[in-house]
Design brief:
This protein has 62 residues and is α+β, with helices and mostly antiparallel strands. It contains three helices and three strands.
Length: 62
């Protein structure tokens, strides 16, 4: 369930990572987290459902 008070970012990633979803689920999770750690620092992957990945903003607000 998506919390209305804290909106999620919807993003996408390349097919190379999506192909891992069925062939190697552990590698898929690892590669997905690594990809978004580089592209969206401070955001957490919550869900991946082809072709969308849902991210939560965990950066600290000042």
């Amino acid at each position: 369930m998506i919390d209305d008070q804290k909106k999620l970012l919807q993003s996408m990633m390349g097919d190379r990572i999506w192909r891992l979803m069925k062939s190697d689920p552990e590698a898929f999770q690892r590669e997905t987290k690594a990809y978004f750690a580089r592209t969206y620092p401070g955001w957490t992957v919550l869900r991946a459902k082809y072709p969308i990945v849902y991210l939560r903003d965990d950066r600290k607000r000042v």
